[in-house]
Write a structure and sequence with these properties.
Structural class of chain A: mainly alpha
Largest sheet of chain A: none
Radius of gyration of chain A: 19 Å
Radius of gyration of chain B: 21 Å
Largest interface: A-B, 77 and 78 residues
Strand content of chain A: under 5%
Number of domains of chain B: 2
Strand content of chain B: under 5%
Oligomer: heterodimer
Distance between the termini of chain A: 26 Å
Chain lengths: 160, 178
């Protein structure tokens, strides 16, 4: 276990203890929700792990780097951004995926744009968003998110 | 209503299991064709599994706590009437609390529109909800490191606020024209 994981576990445990003494009944209910969502997300976690394993075993770093590395340029970034907008995986699981490609040749810009578009833009949930916010606001939000995701990623690439 | 949500959840669970079985069989077939790749595959997958298991239960507990302890109507009540710097900070704060995926936030945003909250704050709230949730930042810290996490967090906050203002201006501009 690295220090980050230890820190996060201690933090969660601390919050858990604090609320436990405030309201036991609600804390129990919260733990129930936690266990349920853990098992709900578990299959997807395993899928991602198998896919990461396969990708890093059968796709070489140089291949990853030509598609989404530094030399892939703005076109590569836009392709990754489109990919992130269309894909629908839990945001929590985007991070191990991003880390695995980052260690193996992907550029910071590509990884940052992937995470931001994946979380901010949802084509699958767009109908629901239109229903609740109206067509104009929903399309505006998704469109602007795409533009700003690219801008954020490009800045990250230049400062990191 | 509740049983329907559960039914849908069971359906996605079964779908996920099927996809898992397919990807496992693909892995087994590929590895048996290229047995020399087996150690690398096992090592990579095992390392990621350990890293996930080290952090996932803690993240889930934190999310569960917030779902139960922060009632959704409370969010609407507070965001509906505040404006200015306080409104912006509240929108960022409530968005960042770990209370479910983005599609849970759309009905809340819908309610906020009806209550007459500022468009820019609603956009900030939705973007923060999508992009700077506390559990996500924890995963980002674990897998991508502090520098990456902090840089993306700061940039996202800045641009999300700008985006809120632009959206509001555009919405008002198009309304005036029609």
């Amino acid at each position: 276990m690295n220090s980050t994981a230890i820190f996060i576990n201690i933090f969660s445990l601390f919050v858990l203890l604090v609320v436990f003494f405030k309201d036991r009944q609600k804390t129990k209910q919260a733990l129930k929700v936690a266990v349920q969502s853990f098992f709900n997300i578990l299959p997807t976690v395993l899928i991602i792990i198998v896919l990461i394993g396969l990708m890093l075993t059968f796709v070489s770093s140089s291949e990853i780097s030509t598609i989404i590395g530094e030399q892939s340029g703005l076109r590569g970034v836009l392709i990754v951004a489109l990919f992130g907008s269309v894909m629908h995986i839990p945001a929590l699981l985007a991070f191990p995926l991003a880390a695995s490609v980052l260690e193996n040749g992907a550029s910071i810009v590509a990884v940052a744009v992937f995470i931001t578009t994946l979380t901010m833009i949802g084509l699958l949930t767009l109908p629901l968003e239109i229903k609740e916010l109206g067509k104009k606001m929903a399309l505006l939000r998704n469109g602007l998110s795409f533009v700003f995701a690219v801008i954020i990623a490009l800045i990250m690439g230049s400062i990191l | 209503m509740k049983s329907e949500a559960r039914k849908k959840q069971n359906k996605t669970f079964i779908r996920d299991i099927i996809i898992l079985l397919i990807s496992l069989s693909v892995a087994v077939v590929l590895i048996s064709f290229f047995p020399q790749k087996r150690p690398r595959f096992m090592e990579v997958s095992w390392n990621f599994l350990i890293e996930m298991i080290a952090i996932l239960p803690a993240v889930m507990i934190l999310m569960g706590l917030f779902v139960v302890f922060v009632p959704k109507d409370e969010i609407v009540k507070h965001l509906g009437k505040t404006s200015g710097l306080k409104g912006v900070s509240l929108a960022l704060f409530f968005g960042a609390l770990p209370t479910g995926p983005l599609y849970v936030a759309f009905p809340l945003a819908g309610m906020l529109i009806k209550k007459g909250a500022r468009i820019s704050n609603i956009i900030i709230f939705l973007s923060a909800w999508a992009c700077i949730k506390i559990p996500q930042e924890m995963m980002e810290l674990q897998f991508l490191g502090f520098k990456f996490m902090a840089a993306r967090l700061v940039l996202t906050i800045i641009f999300v606020i700008i985006m809120g203002r632009i959206s509001e201006a555009l919405m008002e501009w198009t309304e005036k024209r029609t």
